[in-house]
């Protein structure tokens, strides 16, 4: 058996098709006819464009706009003067052959991207590799793509590029496995969208199997079973069938407003980071948005988003949710989330430092832009504003009165603002949990942020692999704080939700229902499973 990273859930039983390594032999041979070599490169680029356009169309039909956009960025790379322009320069100035020119420019780009700290940017190196490889294969006259004839095929590759993944024929390919890759690589994301079981980061799967081998893929646990005996095959056939049946069954819950057996109504909501994420949340039958992490609007750009940009983003989500509750959290920057354009102090413990509401109360100029945008958007739906990292009543009061000030200013300007906006806090600092009954008298709601609450309660850094064994949501101290928070809210007649990862943890839901949690908010793909567990609770 081999263990890797479970990138896309599900089971598959089938035969291996090994994807050949497309490595080409690249020489330093110089060319004399520079013009002819540049034309050869141009032709290859044109061929790439035609191929990528057709891949993009297939992706658009099968996976939707967002996933197909990857190929737009590939097509754009082909026209990028810094990328393909640099290849021409390399031919011109060094008399390099086209293959060599493509290879050396790509290497330079890869070095830059792969050394970036940001995981997302590192993963984007895969896009550069993908495009460069396609140009090289076209230059070498080698066709791209996998020719798969048989059904129940399991594709095994060193790495699958996004374009390889998008081209997989779903009627034949039942899973894929790769030597390298992580959960956030594009191929892994696409596998989840296509709902193809996938395991990545298996290290040496390409040298452990050969074409035609019969294997089992357990995408739930991240295991590959090589040469299974008959009993194991039967066992996994049963698991696969049960899994597929359950997935179908769950769809029945899309429009169900869940209640426990004793009749308590519980809301199951979705967490989002970008306005577009709202679609998946709606598709999965969420009762609302329990957490919009607005800091993502501030990331991957060179300057602060303007009031107008933010207003459009919030309005979009509120309108799409058609009057259902939308909890929007104010900027939670700092800790592990930094902005390139906002200088921050060097701190020994950034998670205990200048972040979230602390930063916003200090930088009212930044805070004001967001609060004005939120208040203006409130007119278009059921907005609830939530402050992160509240540790004391005074912070909440300062933040709330700042919202009132901004509201008065907007009304003065003649702008429309809803007059029924609830204002609540995240309970993610133990102090807030301990003081929940007092805080509850002042706020409209709580949402428990277990991701931080656990790390602060157990003094176990949420980012550290070394202490991950201590990071336990079911630790009695954590459970006690959660219970206190829920009871504190209820004692003042307020509602209490949870938007940390624990809300979608199938092993924790029963306990949280028992404690009286009113709202669960989680990633879109966990919503239906959570609904199913909730309706089975007393
Ligand atoms: C949390 O801390 O549980 C939470 C939801 O916020 P974040 O993960 O963004 O810190
Ligand atoms: Mg948090």
UniProtKB/TrEMBL annotation:
<dbReference type="GO" id="GO:0016301">
    <property type="term" value="F:kinase activity"/>
</dbReference>
<keyword id="KW-0460">Magnesium</keyword>
<feature type="domain" description="PEP-utilising enzyme C-terminal">
    <location>
        <begin position="248"/>
        <end position="534"/>
    </location>
</feature>
<keyword id="KW-0813">Transport</keyword>
<feature type="binding site">
    <location>
        <position position="452"/>
    </location>
    <ligand>
        <name>Mg(2+)</name>
    </ligand>
</feature>
<dbReference type="InterPro" id="IPR008279">
    <property type="entry name" value="PEP-util_enz_mobile_dom"/>
</dbReference>
<keyword id="KW-0598">Phosphotransferase system</keyword>
<dbReference type="InterPro" id="IPR000121">
    <property type="entry name" value="PEP_util_C"/>
</dbReference>
<dbReference type="InterPro" id="IPR036637">
    <property type="entry name" value="Phosphohistidine_dom_sf"/>
</dbReference>
<dbReference type="Pfam" id="PF05524">
    <property type="entry name" value="PEP-utilisers_N"/>
</dbReference>
<dbReference type="InterPro" id="IPR024692">
    <property type="entry name" value="PTS_EI"/>
</dbReference>
<dbReference type="InterPro" id="IPR018274">
    <property type="entry name" value="PEP_util_AS"/>
</dbReference>
<keyword id="KW-0808">Transferase</keyword>
<feature type="binding site">
    <location>
        <position position="428"/>
    </location>
    <ligand>
        <name>Mg(2+)</name>
    </ligand>
</feature>
<dbReference type="Pfam" id="PF00391">
    <property type="entry name" value="PEP-utilizers"/>
</dbReference>
<dbReference type="InterPro" id="IPR050499">
    <property type="entry name" value="PEP-utilizing_PTS_enzyme"/>
</dbReference>
<dbReference type="GO" id="GO:0009401">
    <property type="term" value="P:phosphoenolpyruvate-dependent sugar phosphotransferase system"/>
</dbReference>
<feature type="active site" description="Tele-phosphohistidine intermediate">
    <location>
        <position position="186"/>
    </location>
</feature>
<dbReference type="GO" id="GO:0046872">
    <property type="term" value="F:metal ion binding"/>
</dbReference>
<feature type="active site" description="Proton donor">
    <location>
        <position position="499"/>
    </location>
</feature>
<keyword id="KW-0479">Metal-binding</keyword>
<dbReference type="Pfam" id="PF02896">
    <property type="entry name" value="PEP-utilizers_C"/>
</dbReference>
<keyword id="KW-0670">Pyruvate</keyword>
<feature type="binding site">
    <location>
        <position position="329"/>
    </location>
    <ligand>
        <name>phosphoenolpyruvate</name>
    </ligand>
</feature>
<dbReference type="GO" id="GO:0008965">
    <property type="term" value="F:phosphoenolpyruvate-protein phosphotransferase activity"/>
</dbReference>
<dbReference type="InterPro" id="IPR036618">
    <property type="entry name" value="PtsI_HPr-bd_sf"/>
</dbReference>
<dbReference type="GO" id="GO:0005737">
    <property type="term" value="C:cytoplasm"/>
</dbReference>
<dbReference type="InterPro" id="IPR006318">
    <property type="entry name" value="PTS_EI-like"/>
</dbReference>
<dbReference type="InterPro" id="IPR023151">
    <property type="entry name" value="PEP_util_CS"/>
</dbReference>
<feature type="binding site">
    <location>
        <position position="462"/>
    </location>
    <ligand>
        <name>phosphoenolpyruvate</name>
    </ligand>
</feature>
<comment type="function">
    <text>General (non sugar-specific) component of the phosphoenolpyruvate-dependent sugar phosphotransferase system (sugar PTS). This major carbohydrate active-transport system catalyzes the phosphorylation of incoming sugar substrates concomitantly with their translocation across the cell membrane. Enzyme I transfers the phosphoryl group from phosphoenolpyruvate (PEP) to the phosphoryl carrier protein (HPr).</text>
</comment>
<keyword id="KW-0963">Cytoplasm</keyword>
<feature type="domain" description="Phosphotransferase system enzyme I N-terminal">
    <location>
        <begin position="3"/>
        <end position="124"/>
    </location>
</feature>
<dbReference type="InterPro" id="IPR040442">
    <property type="entry name" value="Pyrv_kinase-like_dom_sf"/>
</dbReference>
<dbReference type="InterPro" id="IPR008731">
    <property type="entry name" value="PTS_EIN"/>
</dbReference>
<feature type="domain" description="PEP-utilising enzyme mobile">
    <location>
        <begin position="152"/>
        <end position="222"/>
    </location>
</feature>
<comment type="similarity">
    <text>Belongs to the PEP-utilizing enzyme family.</text>
</comment>
<protein>
    <recommendedName>
        <fullName>Phosphoenolpyruvate-protein phosphotransferase</fullName>
        <ecNumber>2.7.3.9</ecNumber>
    </recommendedName>
</protein>
<dbReference type="InterPro" id="IPR015813">
    <property type="entry name" value="Pyrv/PenolPyrv_kinase-like_dom"/>
</dbReference>
<keyword id="KW-0418">Kinase</keyword>
<keyword id="KW-0762">Sugar transport</keyword>
<feature type="binding site">
    <location>
        <begin position="451"/>
        <end position="452"/>
    </location>
    <ligand>
        <name>phosphoenolpyruvate</name>
    </ligand>
</feature>
